[in-house]
Design brief:
8 helices; alpha/beta; disordered N terminus
Length: 291
Amino acid sequence: MQHQSTSAPQALGACPLADIPGTTLPALVQVQAARWEAGAQGAQALEREVSAEVPVAMVFNGISHAVMMASPADLVEFGLGFAISEGIVDSPVDCRDVETQVHGAGTPDASCSVHMEISPRQFMRLKEQRRTLAGRTGCGVCGIDSIQALDLHPEQVGSPDWMALFGVAAINAAFTALSARQELNARTGSLHAAGWARPDGTLVHVLEDVGRHNALDKLLGRLAMRSELGMPGFVVMTSRTSYELVRKCARVGVPALATISAPTSLALQLADEAGMQLWGFCRPPSAVRYV
């Protein structure tokens, strides 16, 4: 078993990302392929890179809580962002230690786990509300065993002063810059991206994953690690707007979410209840505001 660890509560509050080790599993895998064209004699042999997708277990105080199918990169951010966006912890300081482990490296059964030590108060709450999740790349409601278990009433976000001047110009600026920052997707064409932009549209952080909600969790985890949660800004994503993206953003107080595709009706309902701005079809020079 291979592992890396990072300890100390302050590490999750403000330490630089460079101080935090990453996973040893590669994010990209080399494969052989062939290009076929109509009318051509035979095929052209190719080498391609594809996105790695592996099970990632989220383990809190020794108890496995969720298994998500994800890209094996930025796993410390992923774990912390998941813990915050799912309401398992209320603040980064409640997560006291993080260790990432790699299992079966180099085999078809390769997997990762993120082990987090959380405060006794948060762990007690988790045990009371515990549910087992089984994540899939495109899922939205993973492992919920009853309708009553759904949490469809988000926190109120409110509208900070800077939102009075916020609009399509900032969204266009962020999306114009987003493509060039999707380094892994440029090589594979199969990853979502979640980005954090300042109110003027300056793109600051971009995180990628095979799952849209995973990418968002990684982004929120990076913001938390750099003490930037709650700072002025908004989220941009290369996906449709599903309800869980709105739910996660509302939980950490993000006032605006902009995506490249359309929202669902439930996403609109939650955004309206939370008081968030929701933008879709963000393809410069235009964007559609729904809420």
